[in-house]
Amino acid sequence: MADSSDNVVRLRPLADAAPSRRSLEKRWTRDVIEPGFTFIPSVILRAQARLHINAVELAVLMHLIDHWWEDETMPFPSKRRLAERMSVSDKTIQRAIVRLEEEGLLKRRPRSHASGGQASNLYDLSPLVEKLKPIAKDMIEARKEAATIRRAAARPGLKRRAKVSKEG
Q: What residues pair up with 64 in beta bridges, in sequence order?
């Protein structure tokens, strides 16, 4: 008879959840990871509705984040490059960027070539980071509250005993 523990999926503690390149390669294979990868905080995906962005705007945001290679240098892909990657029109990208800016998730900064000609915009994503902080805090609090509720449901007498011992 097979041991019932063979079917048990063990969960890692949340603190160990950050994947290393090695674990990404194990998950996706080296061939898939080699061209590059991007870290996306889950809060962006989980809070899409709270950020008031549609699927196209989310995809544009993901592509902008994919171009954010250095911590101190914000991304500056052209609208045409984004449109080609997403198989949409330049106008679709332009509308999405305007909406992202209206929602306070990014700021466009004009750039110019040394010769004076216009270059692609720089997209400051620091407003997105700031907007995500309270959302992430809410999600962490909700996770803590859910854990407390789960513990209380698993051990219903514990809360009553703790209360009695404090009064005693």
A: none
Residue spans per domain, the chain: 19-133
Helices (H), the chain: 21-28, 30-33, 42-46, 55-66, 79-86, 90-102, 126-154, 156-167
Characterise 53 by phi-psi region: left (phi > 0), alpha (psi -120 to 50), beta (else).
beta
Cβ-based neighbour number of residue 63 at 10 Å: 19
What is the distance between the alpha carbons of residues 74 and 16, in angstroms, rounded to a whole number? 28
Evaluate whether 47 touches 135 at the Cβ level (below 8 Å): yes
Do residues 93 and 82 make contact, with C-beta atoms less than 8 angstroms apart? yes
In the structure encoding, which two tokens stand for residue 3, read together?
């041991």
* pTM of the predicted protein model: 0.74
Q: Per residue in 32-66, pLDDT tens?
A: 988 888 888 999 999 999 999 999 999 999 999 99
Q: Which CATH number fits domain 19-133: 3.90.1150.10, 1.10.10.10, 3.40.50.2030, 3.40.710.10?
A: 1.10.10.10
